Amino acid sequence: MRSECVLGATSDSGQEAPRDTWFLQGWKASRRFLIKGSVAGGAVYLVYDQELLGPSDKSQAALQKAGEVVPPAMYQFSQYVCQQTGLQIPQLPAPPKIYFPIRDSWNAGIMMVMSALSVAPSKAREYSKEGWEYVKARTK
């Protein structure tokens, strides 16, 4: 079994690992962390900048804006990739137009959750009573 290349670690042959390998492994891990952190930070900034966590009107407008901007950007990117690599990417059909009212779905979801929470105590009492009756019937 091969051991990890860390400072002072030995390999399978019993020789000490080169001192620069632990630095390179640390750099790879920190580079991945920096990339993932940058993507996450960018996403948080985008959500804050576009006010997506604000009123649903602004969220709906941002969704419509994204629906208008993303398909042309993807087409341009695919054309760029074709030019740079010489690959032929088949033309995809246009995405269907979908109207998804966020406000209606959000309100329906909140109402379902609140409804479930409001009946939870009575349902818990009902289920525990049924369970108790079942246990009493089996122990006789």
TrEMBL record:
GO (cellular component) term, any one: MICOS complex
UniProt entry keywords in alphabetical sequence: Membrane, Mitochondrion, Mitochondrion inner membrane, Transmembrane, Transmembrane helix
Role, per record: Component of the MICOS complex, a large protein complex of the mitochondrial inner membrane that plays crucial roles in the maintenance of crista junctions, inner membrane architecture, and formation of contact sites to the outer membrane.
Localization per Swiss-Prot or TrEMBL: Mitochondrion inner membrane
UniProt subunit comment: Component of the mitochondrial contact site and cristae organizing system (MICOS) complex.
Record organism: Gorilla gorilla gorilla
Origin: domain of life: Eukaryota
Protein name: MICOS complex subunit MIC13
Family the entry assigns: Belongs to the MICOS complex subunit Mic13 family.
Membrane-topology annotation of the record: Single-pass membrane protein
Broad class of the protein's primary localization: mitochondrion
Alphabetical list of InterPro entries matching this protein: Mic13
